[in-house]
Amino acid sequence: SDEGIGAxxxxxxxxxxxxxxxVFVSLDQRRVTVTEVIRVMGPFPNVKNxxxxxxxxxxxxxxxxxDKVVDGTGSVITSSQARDAAFRVAGLSSRLMVLAAAxxxxxxxxxxxxxxxxAASLEKLRVLP
Length: 129
Hints:
Blueprint: H1 2-8, E1 18-28, E2 31-40, E3 47-57, E4 61-70, E5 76-77, E6 83-92, E7 96-103, E8 106-113, H2 118-124
Antiparallel strand pairs: 1-2, 2-3, 3-4, 4-5, 4-6, 6-7, 7-8
């Protein structure tokens, strides 16, 4: 849902004439990288935003603390996107991660599937890896 995916991404897909195309989550050694691709209607290229931060993973919870965002223009944004977020881990396997984002209207489910060819997926979405 919009509220759930906005919790893990920038939320910039909510601006007029924008549509979220895909979100990729990478976890590695207490760090998280979230890459989101947003399509802007009209004669505009797709936009790739990348969020970086610290991550803590337990069997029941994923906590992230974003400290840096690189937007589609290459600008580094720190203050407006610096925030913490926590998600309940509802399911985890070698191919799938299911998170529950607590929202005002209840849990919003976020399902992430392992992407073996990350760079190729970004190219399909017409953004540079």
